[in-house]
Amino acid sequence: SDAVKLSKFPKQQSLRELGQGYYHLVFRYLKALWAAHATLVLDVELEKAGEHSLSGDVQLYSHVWVHGRRHGAATQHRGQSAQYAYIGHRIPVQIQHIFRVEERFTDTQTLTANLAIVCRFQEDPVIFNFPWALWYANPYTSNCTPQLIFRATDIGVQVWQANIFGRSEVIALEQLSGHFVLAQIPVRRRDLWITIAFDHVCRIFASAWDQSEPYCAGCHRIRRNNRVRRIIVT
């Protein structure tokens, strides 16, 4: 993919040696991904006609660029400074490993995949009333009825358990969607992680407002761009 730029000097590695369960994790992912092109079987099975045994050999990378953003692996010295990232819409993860799979099926067919093994942040079971998690009333709606705006969603602030991660999962590198600010705070004799998104922009269509100046608690300046008004939190 043009969105992915791999770093130089990869290391050849076996998934079975990389970590317990990694081979089967990647096997299940690739079996579904390549289902239209090949039938994958485990390396401990005998191949039948039309089947291909997944070798489990990969090229391991310390870091990579996705859409111009640098991401790194927590298990690599050169990747630790960029080991945290968003996937999808503001789902924070720790990147465990970054690697490329190349499987040659025939003399003319080679399938490749640029992948990462990640672990998601885990929400704290205790709900704390942080200032950014409050509902604010916006009086400037089209029907003159106060409209509630959830600031935590708008400005991208979330709370997680510190140093607690979910199970490992495989993703395509293209799923890495951005960076965030990570801060640790002590709350009631426990440590929590706060993630703060860099894209503090909520887009609100002008049709949702009347001719009055729109207002959002916590937003300090407003820009207009044709039909769309951007409320930018600083």
UniProtKB/TrEMBL annotation:
This is Uncharacterized protein.
